[in-house]
């Protein structure tokens, strides 16, 4: 699951395109299938979204939650692809994008009535 935060006036107009860019990176770097898009957009009022100095109101936070298993090189490739594609296709400078990857063991995930470590029918590999 991916959660994206930003100031409402800047985030709302780009939600569809940003979702496409994020999912495309997840597919190309992690091998995620087309139907595994799980994005949650949290548009905030400017007074509810404090961000570091040197950033613009386009500042966007992307939290990627995933089962552990991807190598550090794979995770770094995903982060770099996101920075590059978001700048190229949406026009947000990398200085205005913050990305965090949060990994949890498979047994901490629950979906389709089972835990992640019980799932045997995933259509993608976690260990990439």
Q: Could you list some keywords that capture this structure?
A:
Tautomerase/MIF_sf, alpha/beta, single chain, two-stranded antiparallel ribbon, globular, Tautomerase family protein, 128 residues, four-stranded mixed β-sheet, 3 helices, Tauto_MSAD, Macrophage Migration Inhibitory Factor
Care to describe what's here?
With about 130 residues, the protein is an alpha/beta fold. Helices cover about 30% and strands about 25% of the residues. It has 3 helices and 6 strands; from the N terminus they run βααββαβββ. It has a 4-stranded mixed sheet. It has a two-stranded antiparallel sheet with strand order 5-6. Helix 2 runs antiparallel to helix 3 (about 70-90). It is globular. InterPro entries: Tauto_MSAD, Tautomerase/MIF_sf. It comes from Marinobacter xestospongiae. This is Tautomerase family protein.
Taking Cα atoms only, what radius of gyration do you get, to the nearest Å? 15 Å
Count of structural domains: 1
* Overall shape: globular
Report the order of strands and helices: EHHEEHEEE
Strand content: 25-35%
The CATH topology, please? Macrophage Migration Inhibitory Factor
Structural class: alpha/beta
Measured as a percent range, the helix fraction is 25-40%
How many β strands by DSSP?
6
* Global mean pLDDT: 93
The CATH superfamily bears the name Macrophage Migration Inhibitory Factor
Low-pLDDT parts are none
Largest sheet, spatial ordering of strands: 2-1-3-4
What is the level 1 CATH name? Alpha Beta
The end-to-end distance, rounded to whole angstroms, is: 18 Å
The count of helical stretches stands at: 3
Oligomeric description of these chains: single chain
Largest sheet: 4 strands, mixed
Task: Provide the CATH architecture.
Answer: 2-Layer Sandwich
């Amino acid at each position: 699951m991916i959660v994206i935060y930003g100031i409402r006036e800047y985030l709302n107009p780009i939600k569809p395109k940003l979702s496409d860019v994020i999912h495309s990176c997840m597919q190309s770097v992690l091998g995620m299938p087309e139907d595994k898009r799980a994005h949650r957009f949290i548009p905030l009022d400017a007074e509810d979204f404090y961000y570091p100095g040197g950033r613009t109101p386009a500042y966007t936070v992307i939290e990627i939650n995933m089962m552990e298993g991807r190598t550090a090189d794979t995770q770094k490739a995903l982060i770099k692809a996101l920075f590059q594609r978001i700048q190229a296709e949406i026009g947000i400078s990398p200085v205005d994008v913050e990305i965090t990857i949060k990994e949890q063991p498979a047994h901490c995930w629950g979906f389709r009535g089972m835990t992640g470590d019980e799932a045997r029918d995933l259509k993608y590999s976690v260990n990439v």
